[in-house]
Each structure stands twice: as structure tokens, then as C-alpha cells.
Design a protein that fits this description.
The chain is mainly β. The chain contains three helices and 19 strands. Helix 2 packs antiparallel against helix 3. The termini are far apart.
């Protein structure tokens, strides 16, 4: 390729100009495959509208004329931040495959909730897309997960065996790559035995505080006001000591 230089003029603020004789023909390649010329813009640059993952690869530009040719290449890497997949069927299918019959719950940015029986197992799914593939880390109440657990499916599933009150709190997964961060969460509710108190007009579910009171519970109907206070405090997750106090007033053994 021959370069011809113009003689500089003596006018202030002028420049040197360099041009090729004859003009070079530009050809673009992606992964060594020629790109149609209709994607080029007027100055020989390559325009890629609405870049997506499928556009990444090795791009090469070849400039050639009768004097020779030169080729320059660059690698295009498309980053896609962690985000929710358009469909959750894949995660649901993975949970069923990993643990058939095991209760499961899928996290979300706004938070989800799963009610479990004491001692049961659970699978927690963290569905996420992104490029490069996000790295997933699990947390409990904002700290790295330290309770007994297993991480499955490249980090997308957290398995807990024999759940207990130790797991009451927010469980979250943090998906991160070079393009961004996505946090999703869920919480577990551990349910014990329940007792039922009914009247002519209503049915109230009373979470068990002490199994020893079950056979005497209905004796408290004649103390309806105290019983109502006891029930509602329990349903509102008041401390056990408060409930025991009211049961003592009802003279029920605990």
C-alpha cells in the first residue's frame, strides 16, 4: 500500500493529509465469515444495531488494494446483567428433578414465603439469566449462609434438610457478573401442631404452645374474654411467656 503526502502549505493552522492510492477496499468478517456490505456505514465502519448475545465474536476488518492488504481484528464481548428469566418453567422442572416430592420455593426480588412442617426438607431455587453466567452466593439475614445446607445446580438451588426454628429469617441469593447484581429472597415459616377453637360463628386456628394443654383447652370457654386475649396474642406471635401467663389465669395446666 502506497502512502502519498501533500506538501505542507505555509498557511497557519494547516495539517498534513495522508491518503491511499488507489483507495482501499474494506471487507468485514465475523468469526472469519464475511459480513454483507449492506451493514457498513459510509466511512467503512461497521454498525451493529440492538446488540445482543448472538452478536459477540471475533470481528476483523481487511483493507486491500493493488499494493497489498492489511487486517485488524477485535473481540466483541456482550455483557448481560443478571435478570429474571422470561419463564420459570425451567427452574420448576429442575427443582422437581433434583428432589422429587420435596417441598420447594422460588425466590424473587420482592420476596416469597414458604410454610413448612418442623423437620421437613426444602429446596430453594434462584432463577437468573445473564452473560457471563452470574456467580450465585447464598445469604441468611444478610450474612453468608452458615447453617447446614447443600448448594446444587451450579449454585441455583439451596437444599435444607430437617428445617427448624434456626432457619426462621430471610434467605437470599445474590447473582453477580461483570455487568451487574441481582438479589432475590424468600423466608421460611416453620409450622407446629395446631389446635382449633370454635364457637357458633367463627373458627380460630391456635398454634400449639404446649401439648399438655390440649385436653383441657375447651374448659376455658367460660372465660371467653381471657381466651380471646390469649388466642390473639398467640396469633400475633407474642412471646410464649405471655401466653403461659394468660393460661395460668385460666387455671389450665401447662
Amino acid at each position: 500500500m502506497k502512502a502519498t503526502y501533500l506538501e505542507p502549505s505555509y498557511v497557519e493552522n494547516t495539517f498534513y493529509f495522508i491518503f491511499c492510492v488507489p483507495e482501499a477496499e474494506l471487507t468485514w468478517f465475523r468469526n472469519k465469515i464475511k459480513i454483507p456490505p449492506d451493514l457498513h456505514i459510509h466511512d467503512g465502519s461497521l454498525l451493529i444495531p440492538n446488540v445482543s448475545i448472538s452478536d459477540q465474536g471475533l470481528y476483523s476488518c481487511r483493507a486491500a488494494n493493488i499494493r497489498g492488504e492489511v487486517t485488524e481484528s477485535t473481540q466483541l464481548l456482550v455483557l448481560d446483567p443478571p435478570q429474571l428469566p422470561h419463564q420459570f418453567e425451567d427452574m420448576a422442572a429442575t427443582l422437581s428433578l433434583v428432589g422429587p416430592g420435596i417441598p420447594s420455593v422460588i425466590t424473587s426480588p420482592s420476596g416469597t414465603r414458604k410454610i413448612l412442617s418442623q423437620g421437613s426438607s426444602v429446596l430453594i431455587g434462584c432463577p437468573v439469566d445473564g452473560h457471563p453466567t452470574p456467580n450465585i452466593t447464598w445469604f441468611y439475614d444478610g450474612h453468608p449462609f452458615h447453617l447446614p445446607h447443600q448448594v446444587l445446580a451450579s449454585g441455583q438451588i439451596l437444599q435444607i434438610l430437617n428445617v427448624s426454628n434456626d432457619y426462621l429469617g430471610e434467605i437470599s441469593c445474590r447473582a453477580q457478573n461483570e455487568a451487574g447484581l441481582l438479589i432475590q429472597k424468600t423466608s421460611l415459616v416453620i409450622q407446629g401442631k395446631t389446635y382449633f377453637w370454635s364457637s357458633l360463628t367463627q373458627l380460630v386456628i391456635f398454634p400449639c404452645v404446649s401439648t399438655s394443654i390440649s385436653h383441657r383447652f375447651f374448659e376455658a370457654f367460660k372465660h371467653s374474654e381471657l381466651l380471646d386475649r390469649c388466642l390473639w396474642r398467640t396469633l400475633e406471635s407474642q412471646s410464649v411467656d405471655v401466653v403461659h401467663c394468660y393460661l395460668w389465669e385460666l387455671r389450665l395446666p401447662i
